[in-house]
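Entry, Tuesday afternoon. Goal for today is a structural model of the target with pyridoxal-5'-phosphate bound, before we commit to ordering more compound. Inputs were pasted exactly as handed over by J.K., no edits. I checked the ligand SMILES twice against the vendor sheet because last time a stereocentre got dropped in transcription.
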Amino acid sequence: MSRTSSSSSPPARRVQLSDALGALKDRISRACAVAGRDPSELTVIAVTKYFPASDAALLADLGVSDLGENRDQEAAAKAAQVAELTDAPVRWHFVGQLQKNKARSVARYASAVHSVDRPELVSALDRAVARLDRSPLDVLIQLSLDDDPNRGGVAAADFAALCDEAAGAAHLNLAGLMAVAPMDADPDRAFARVAEFAATLRAEHPAATSVSAGMSGDLEAAVRHGATHLRIGTALLGRRPHTFG
Ligand SMILES: *Cc1c(COP(=O)(O)O)cnc(C)c1O
């Protein structure tokens, strides 16, 4: 019998998360039906930032094995707590802006970093993984769709060179690209652009097939344009207490 978090968490929360997960799966199924895609092509990453480790563990127990966080301090603590709360398999995805002095910490718990956006971060992560006894770290290059440096991402003009750099790093595995649709922009236009960059990336690096695009508000558009990974916070966990990420 595996340890589960359900005994220590209010059953009501488990029901809430289970209902939200059911509704999300329905939404993804409908989006896939419209787009002529198979839902099995999509991985849901539950972005648990600002929510307690008990929620993350409940989601893992409900079969959501991919969890995401956007700040190292919160993520490192939560990853350790979740490992105590459940035996369910968990992969952590780091999706937030990352300072290179946090590379070592992130490399300890993350399976993938979606927000690689500059050469210094490629080399810092590569060095960090080299020092640890672990498998190569999946990295996705974050493409900026609005050239707003505050929101992270590499400028379109520098995207290909950064992909080549990550592909050449001995301890990293270039898995694909990530993008966040600009606020107040048409997500269809944004994700159509992502799809073009994904195609050129695959032409150069055929194994780099991951397309991390789509959040609670725009997942249908992301599915239409070939997303493989959806980063879902609000639609699963509810509204965050305060948001700046
Ligand atoms: C918080 C966050 C998400 C989830 O956003 P929701 O709109 O709540 O689904 C996705 N991606 C990144 C990078 C985030 O920081």
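The first strand starts at residue 43 and ends at 47.
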